[in-house]
Amino acid sequence: MIRLYFCLLTALLFTAYTQADDRLMVELNGKQQEFVLNHMKSMLETIGAIQQHLARDNPEQVAERVKELKAHERAVKPKGIGKSFPPGFRAMSKTMNQHWKVLLQPTTNEKKIQQELHLILNQCNACHRSYQLKR
């Protein structure tokens, strides 16, 4: 009986780990892929910095931190990269950028800042569930 349970458990685990990844593959050249990976990291670091500003009761610093993120993005973003993305990816990116734009406006409304961060993270999660970079 124990052997049967072990075989069933092994089969279940094997099935769970071998299911196909149904995310859409995004193919980029090396420079584009490097930009995307670094930009995702920068956005995550910015979200962390914003949370730190809120925890230290400095919401007025949020807009400055987002300005730094957007300035760096403009400085290093490869020309024409948008054309390399599928339409759905571009739509998610456009929506996310709208939320970052809200955070560019100086405010001390911590609830509004948290709401925008929540919406940004929703876009991150949706994108990661839908797309993967081809390595």
Binned strand content: under 5%
Main sheet summary = 2 strands, parallel
Q: What is the tally of beta strands?
A: 2
Q: Which residues form runs of ≥5 with pLDDT under 50?
A: none
Tally of individual helices: 5
Distance between the termini: 44 Å
On the 0 to 100 scale, the average pLDDT is 89
Helix proportion of residues, in percent?
over 70%
Q: How would you classify the helix and strand content by structural class? A: mainly alpha
**Whole-number radius of gyration?**
20 Å
Order of helices and strands: HEHHHHE
- Tell me, what's the shape? globular
How are strands sequenced across the largest beta sheet? 1-2
Fold and architecture overview:
This protein is mainly alpha-helical and 135 residues long. It is built from 5 helices and 2 strands; from the N terminus they run H-E-H-H-H-H-E. The protein has helices at residues 2-18, 30-55, 62-76, 87-104, 110-130; strands at residues 24-26, 131-133. It has a two-stranded parallel ribbon. Helix 2 (30-55) runs antiparallel to helix 3 and helix 4 packs antiparallel against helix 5. It is globular, with a radius of gyration of 20 Å. The chain starts with a helix and ends with a strand.
